Amino acid sequence: MDRIRILATGGTFDKEYNEITGELFFKSTHTGDMLALGRCLLPVEFETLMMIDSLQMTAADRESILARCRAVAERRIVITHGTDTMPETSVVLGKGLKGSGKTVVLTGAMVPYKFGSSDGMFNLGTALAFVQTLPPGVYVAMNGRWFPWHSVRKNKKKGIFEPTTQPAGKS
Prior knowledge:
Helix content is about 25%, strand content about 30%.
């Protein structure tokens, strides 16, 4: 079984809550705790690239993520990422990793893991399953669904990810 690389970049997935100020902040990734709680038996290696809200993510940050994806030996990569600009990062990766033979799945959470009612555990689990089964390419995985990098958006009114194109005959 091939090892999977998990790259943490921050986002709601890893936010903490300050009970005194009421603010959300970053301390460290919760990925290890989530893997242990989920009793993950997959061979994984995880690392923190950055701990930022995706709304603050710059083009240079996205290039840093791309460079790390290119540099790691693993052919299967899961990236935890903020949901607000996940589609933008997936475009950079989709174009930059074309023909690399790597399968990259971005995932995140709408509710912080520390809140206890987070969708992060489920999203991480499905991302780990998708990265093992999808062909090489870049994908976004949220709420049990996967989307190719070039046809996904976050519907902020509904709080879900959806395809940007409808199949023929569907409305």
